[in-house]
UniProtKB/TrEMBL annotation:
SMART domains (UniProt xref): WD40
Record flagged with keyword Cell wall biogenesis/degradation: no
Biased composition (Acidic residues): 36-48
UniProt protein name: WD repeat-containing protein C2A9.03
UniProt entry keywords in alphabetical sequence: WD repeat
C-alpha cells in the first residue's frame, strides 16, 4: 500500500487526512443535501432508532422513491445532473500518473443491460465506515440474511430477517484473548484501528493498522487469539482471507504492508507459513484447489506463486498501477485482479501471456472483487458510486451497473448467491444496500 500525500504514515486514518480528501470532492458532500455542521454525527451513527432519514424498501423504490432516500424533488440539482458532475469531478487516486487514461485503449466494451440482482432494501440502522481510503474489504455476508461490517471501532452484525443490529466486537478500548494458545498476545491490544475484515462460517478475523490480528469465533464468548504480524513501522494488515486447508483445518492468510504474507492454522493457532516479496502486499487470493496464490500489491505486475513454497510461477503483465483486489472463480481456472488504473483484468491460468478481458470502471480504482459461489457472476466495486455485476458464465460480455452515491466500504455475495450487500460510507446517506438475486419466482415479492 502506497504512502499518502508524502506523509510518513502509509494510511489516511486521522480526521485531518479524511477531511483533506473530502475537500477535494472525493467524498459525497452531505451539505449538498442540507447537511448541517451542527448535526450530532456520533449520536446519529450509533442510534438505530434515529429516524430523520427513513429506510427504503423494494416496494417504495418501485413507486419511485430513491433507493437511498435522497429527496431529489426538493433539491436544486437533479439526480442526472449530479451524476454527470460526479463523473466529471471525481478524482481517482493514482500512484502512477495517468494510469487510468492509458489503460482505456485495452478495455472491453460490455452490454450494460444485465439484470441479475434486484434492489431489496437500504437501511441506515447500520453504517459501515472506512479508515484507509485504499482498503475496502469491510463487509462480509455469511447468509442471505446475515452480514458483518465495520462501523468506527465496532464490528457489527446486521440481520435483514428481523432488522436487528448487534455489536459483535468493540476495539475502542482494551481487548485481550480469553483463551490461552502458544504465541497469542495475552496482553491484547488497546484502541485498535481496523483496516480489514474477513468472516467465514463462525470465524471472524480483524486486521489492524499496527499489524494486529484479532480472531473471534462467533459461537464462543470472548476473543480466541491475538497476535501481531510485525513490529515494524510499516505494519498495516491490508487483507485477510479465511479458507479450508486440504487437511480439513481452517486457515487464514494475512497480507501485510511489510511485504509479507502469513498463513495461520486456526486448529493450533500457529503460524504455518511466512513468505516475503519485493513490495508491500495489498491482497492475496488462494485458488480453489489450494495450490496457487495470486499476489498483488505496490507494483503494476502481480504474481502467481506456489502456495506451499512461495516460489513465483509466473508474473502477470498488463496493469499500469498498484493493485488492491483479487479473486478466484470457483472453477479454479479464472481469476481477476483490480487496479488503480481503473480496470479489472480477468486471467486464465491455462494461458497467462495476457489477460482474457479488461473491464473498465467509471470513476476510479477497482478496490474489491467477488465471485458468486456458483461462478455465475462477478462483482467489482469502484471506490465510490458504482458496483458492476458481470455475467462470468458468458465471458463477461454483459453487466449490471448498480448506481448510487457514496464511498464503498465493501461488497459481499451471500454464500448461497441469493443476496448482494454493499456498504456505503457517507455522512448523511451512509447505509447498507441489499440486492436479491433475480429469479423466475419473484412474483412472490408482490404477495
Amino acid at each position: 500500500m502506497s504512502q499518502y500525500h508524502g506523509d510518513d504514515m502509509d494510511y489516511a486514518a486521522d480526521n485531518n487526512e479524511m477531511a483533506d480528501v473530502e475537500d477535494d470532492d472525493i467524498y459525497f458532500r452531505g451539505r449538498a443535501f442540507g447537511e448541517s455542521d451542527s448535526d450530532d454525527e456520533e449520536d446519529y451513527e450509533y442510534d438505530p432508532l434515529e429516524n430523520r432519514i427513513t429506510d427504503t424498501t423494494a416496494a417504495e423504490a418501485r413507486k419511485g422513491k430513491d433507493i437511498q432516500g435522497i429527496p431529489w424533488d426538493r433539491l436544486s440539482i437533479s439526480r442526472e445532473k449530479y451524476r454527470q458532475t460526479r463523473l466529471e469531478q471525481y478524482k481517482n487516486y493514482e500512484n502512477i500518473p495517468q494510469s487510468g487514461e492509458m489503460s482505456e485503449k485495452e478495455c472491453k466494451a460490455t452490454d450494460k443491460g444485465g439484470k441479475y440482482y434486484d434492489f431489496w432494501q437500504n437501511t441506515r440502522s447500520v453504517k459501515s465506515t472506512i479508515l484507509h481510503f485504499q482498503l475496502r474489504n469491510l463487509v462480509w455476508s455469511t447468509s442471505k440474511h446475515d452480514v458483518y461490517l465495520v462501523s468506527h471501532y465496532s464490528i457489527v452484525h446486521w440481520s435483514s430477517l428481523n432488522s436487528k443490529r448487534s455489536e459483535v466486537l468493540n476495539v475502542s478500548g482494551h481487548v485481550a484473548p480469553c483463551e490461552k494458545h502458544p504465541g497469542s498476545l495475552l496482553e491484547g491490544f488497546t484502541h485498535t484501528q481496523i483496516s480489514t475484515l474477513a468472516v467465514r462460517d463462525n470465524l471472524l478475523i480483524a486486521g489492524g493498522f499496527q499489524g494486529e490480528l484479532i480472531c473471534k469465533y462467533l459461537d464462543r464468548p470472548g476473543i480466541s487469539f491475538c497476535t501481531r504480524t510485525t513490529y515494524e513501522d510499516n505494519a498495516i494488515t491490508n487483507a485477510v482471507e479465511i479458507y479450508e486447508h486440504p487437511s480439513g483445518a481452517v486457515h487464514f492468510m494475512a497480507s501485510n504492508n511489510d511485504s509479507g504474507i502469513r498463513d495461520f492454522d486456526m486448529e493450533t493457532f500457529q503460524l504455518s507459513k511466512h513468505f516475503c516479496f519485493p513490495w508491500p502486499v495489498n491482497h492475496t487470493s488462494l485458488s480453489p484447489d489450494g495450490k496457487q496464490l495470486v499476489i498483488v500489491g505496490d507494483n503494476p505486475e502481480g504474481i502467481l506463486v506456489d502456495s506451499q513454497t512461495g516460489k513465483t510461477i509466473t508474473t502477470l503483465h498488463g496493469h499500469l498501477d498498484y493493485s488492491f483486489a483479487s479473486a478466484w472463480h470457483p472453477d479454479g481456472h479464472i481469476f481477476a485482479t483490480g487496479n488503480q488504473d481503473k480496470t479489472c483484468r480477468v486471467w486464465d491460468v491455462r494461458n497467462l501471456s495476457k489477460s482474457v478481458a479488461v473491464l473498465k470502471g467509471n470513476l476510479g480504482a477497482i478496490r474489491s472483487i467477488r465471485f458468486t459461489s456458483d461462478g455465475q457472476f462477478m462483482a467489482m466495486a469502484e471506490p465510490a458510486d458504482f458496483v458492476h455485476v458481470y455475467d462470468a458464465k458468458h465471458g463477461f460480455e454483459k453487466e449490471q451497473e448498480i448506481d448510487f452515491f457514496g464511498e464503498i466500504s465493501g461488497v459481499s455475495f451471500s454464500p448461497d448467491t441469493e443476496s448482494l450487500f454493499i456498504g456505503v460510507w457517507d455522512r448523511t446517506y451512509g447505509s447498507l444496500l441489499q440486492l436479491n438475486r433475480r429469479r423466475n419466482y419473484m412474483y412472490l415479492d408482490c404477495l
